[in-house]
Amino acid sequence: MSSFRRLLGYALHYRRDFLLGLGCVIVSRGVAVAGPWVLGYAIDDLKADVTRAKLIDYGGLLLAIGVVSGVFLFLQRRILTGASRHIEYDMRNDFFAHLQTLPLGFFQTRRTGDLMSRATNDLNAVRMMIGPAVMYSTSTLLTLVVALTLMISIDARLTLLALIPLPFVSISVKYFGSAIHERFEQIQAQLSDLSAVVQEALSGVRVVRAYRQEAHELERFRESNAEYLRRNRRLVMIQGLFFPSMSFFLGLGALIALWFGSRDVINGRLSLGKFVAFNSYLTMLSWPVIAFGWVTNMLQRGMASWKRMLDVLDTVPAIRDTEPQTDPRTQREPRTQIRNASATSTIRGTIEFRDLVFSYDGGEAVLNHVSVTIEAGQTIALVGVTGSGKSTLISLLARLHDPPPGTVFIDGVDVRDIPLAVLRGAIGFVPQEPFLFSDTLADNVAFGLDAQLALRPPDSPAIDPRARMDRIVAAAAVARLDKDVADFPKAYDTMVGERGITLSGGQKQRTAIARAIVIDPTILILDDALSAVDTYTEEEILSRLRGVMRQRTSLIVSHRISTVRDADQILVIDEGRIVERGTHDALIRHNGLYAALHRKQLLEEELAAS
Amino acid sequence: MSALHDDEILGKAYDARLMRRLLGYLWPYWRPVAIAFIAIVAGSVAQLAQPYLIKVAIDRHIGAGRLEGLDRLAAIYLGILVASFAADYVQTWILQLTGQRIMFDLRMAIYGHLQRLDLKYYDRNPVGRLMTRVTSDVDVLNDLFTSGVVTVFGDVFTLLGIMGVMLWMNWRLALVAFSVLPLIVLVTQWFRRNVRDSYRVVRGWIARINAFLQENITGMATVQLFRREALNYGRFDEIDRKHRDANIDSIFYYSVFYPAIEVVSSLASALIIWYGGGNVLRNTLSIGVLVAFLQYSVRFFRPISDMSEKFNVLQSAMASSERIFKLLDEPVAIESPARPIHRSSQAMGHIVFDHVWFGYSTKPPGDLRDLSGSHDELDDADYVLKDVSFEVRPGQRVGIVGATGAGKTSLINLLMRFYDVTRGRITIDGVDLRDLDLAGLRGLFSLVLQDVHLFSGTIAENISLGNSAIDDTRLRRAARAVHADVFIERLPAGYASPVAERGSTLSMGQKQLLSFARALAFDPRVLILDEATSSVDTETELLIRDALHALMAGRTTIAIAHRLSTIQDMDKILVLHKGRLRESGTHQELLAARGIYFKLFELQYKNREAQERQDGQEVGSVRL
Question: Is the CB of residue A578 less than 8 Å from the CB of residue A586?
């Protein structure tokens, strides 16, 4: 019910269109139904010998009916289908806006293709339900009612007799409908299996070629493809029966009308004109009966798709700003909060984790009683084996996942109470696997900068494109991206991603570093962000970063000792706990896990060198 | 944005060249298709007979007041209904089934061709796009069969039949009715021209919506971290609005078409009543014929107004087939030679790179394509490998080092003939790679990649792949030799345990060991390791190091490594720098030369040396 009401909410925006459109449906159908009636009179008059002038009247009347009905049919289609396109647009915008509010955790549990299909295929089914289905069902219903009334007024007994096959039509629609639906689902399931086989072989093309698995893979594909064919055959078997049996039952109705009707005409109970009109109405009915099954199908699909969309639209963003009145930092409305979010200077960069215990969805604790205070301007390194909880810890700082209340603080304020826009505006985050958009290199570096500029108060001075470019170039220099850019054909205007050049892993990481630096963040976070960069370039970037990072708080996650040894404080994390902390020298002296890790890295090289 | 993507091919509504090619796929099924055509014709005749029977009923019985003979007429009518049912069913069943068979054939053809295309093609086309060719594009073609476009031929037959019957019953009245035909042609032409253009525009916007969504959903964390929500929403709104407006434009044409046909249809009825009615009054026409004419004209216009729906299907089917045929026409750049030179089985695999030059593309792809310039000549900067010469003797172990982008992986791509050299040549035992049988060549090698690719199936199947020569013992022996047996036997079903999607339940190290087992089970003459050990933690790496020794024993090995430590004990180390082979020799020789290798080494070991000075004692105590 509530899902229906939500749908209605969208439609009510265009209620004037709908009313107007439905009015057109009534006029158009109402006039069209008069056609056979005129025909009946014309034929009866022909039997009674009329003047030719009268014939012209009848012809003109038929044409007028066609024209009026046609004009309103045009208006009806244009208005109603147009409204459905407007609703589709509103819905898609809302859907996208809602996706933007959902946290990382949501996207980790959903497949991109699935979400996209909801925003396109499902939305299209919903639109078909709102537009064409509503249009056809009202016009069908109207035709049915009016035509039946007129048929009954011609001859009630004949009407009942002619409609005897009708229940069979409904029954077969229902039977075929569900059988087709079931077989169709089996086909869809096999299609996804087929896709999986293809995806696997194509993404592993090097392995397939290197181990000469082409024939083997082709065989695997043939099996899946053959099963797909088999299931389609099962569908075709019954689907092919659908329309022929429809026309059979309807033809049966016409036969009955002929059988009884002709007797009535001969007995003088029915005029020939009425008989012909009756037959015309019967033909007119065949369309509604078929359309009925079709419309039901559209409604069913539409409602199912709408539920799938609501499934996303009703997901409450797990990570969002607290209500304005409970927000200690500002009393402004949420909108103006975002507007003024560029006031990042309010964040100085003192970070505190206070007895932080964290687990994903109530699972095993990933972080256990983590307590640490980081002064503004310090550089902190996080070291530990894969899966120890380093990345989780820093993701909580940017609220990619939400920490429990009272555990993570910036400048003494719980991060949960800092408006997201303010919090994220102060953080430059370089993820493990950087994501670049198919855009120019400059736009990718300025990704956050452009947002920052757009979020400034409306009265701030205009942006000088040259100043923007200077900032991009400066950030790229720190990230050692400048050397690569010089080799690109269009320098910073080079397109990257699918439509442009493919960057190497290291180039992507360095672009992401430039992207983080260019927004001039108070807190810089590098999540193993140099893993694909060779050691020589890494050294260069680190030394440049040191210059930039002097004023800021930096958190660096890394596997390599060389990356972290100069940090103010190194935290060694093991199974979600901070097991050691201190400077490189102190930790080496402490002779614990860090020293062991360090020794192990040295030892492996010793072993190899000997 | 100027380069036209395959996905943006929108197609004409009808393209004779494509249609001929599609019909080629129909040819093997000409027998069932012929039967279907007979059924179509039979169905049309049955359709045509119905109004005629009504005419007979009116003229001979109802109008004349004669009841006898009506039973026979009703029986014939029933018979025609049954015949029409049978013909329709046979027709749809055969045609749809044939459609499915053709889809099967097409999929096999596309997939088979994909298995032969070289890696350059894969570089240009992301996996998602190729999958679309095999699945969605083929399914769109199937719509030709399911949504009745194929039965258009039947419709045409019906139309001609109706015209014939009308002419036969009364040619004067028929000509009067046909006088509206030019109007139909005009309306249809107008519709076709406009819809084709608006369809292209709409499809273009749909493609943009998809691309935008795909990118923004995948990169949502980045969008949120950098507070791009409002900016990106604005962009999306713009695309979405243009899509909506394009659709509303196209609605206009559809909205006009249906009613216009209806008006023309009522004009035809009016003419029949006016002219035919006059003839009835002059007793030159029976009322039955008049009624039959009215019924035929309704049946005549129905398929025409259905055409607007079929038109869309036809257009997207043409676009899909164009994309499919473009893929099928993609030449296979790397193939076995027609008459390969057979290597003798004693040949040990002496590999020589002889002044090899290589660039990945003639010109950079996409919008960077320089249309004015020559396509054959590469600039010096386009070469990834420049004049590289070296040899690998049987049994030798060779390491390759160099910064990212120095061309290390390209060497291996050339050796396995994933790509062909641009200039120069590579020989094995004196024979050019390009003269060898492709499968035979690749059979010499086992390739281990940093990013392990696992297939859905069991652990055992992932080791042996499709190679039936690898039996259970050989498989287990391989796993044991690389220490993979330890974790495999701990799995619930051991070697028969299923590997989850992309091996998500296995750790990076376990996947790596599994790929070693695979490489060993194939017992190659030459082992190729591409950065195979750079992505695991130190703990696992020691285990893997040991496994590697087992793997390399008695085998020619070529290993690429980030970390110098992994290749220090190799017989020969090649140092690549900006596509050129700058140094080669043993670890000690290269250090003594004080060149690039020395610099790389110094960088990696600087920290260690600093540590040694500072804390020499401790390190000394653990030195072996």
Answer: no
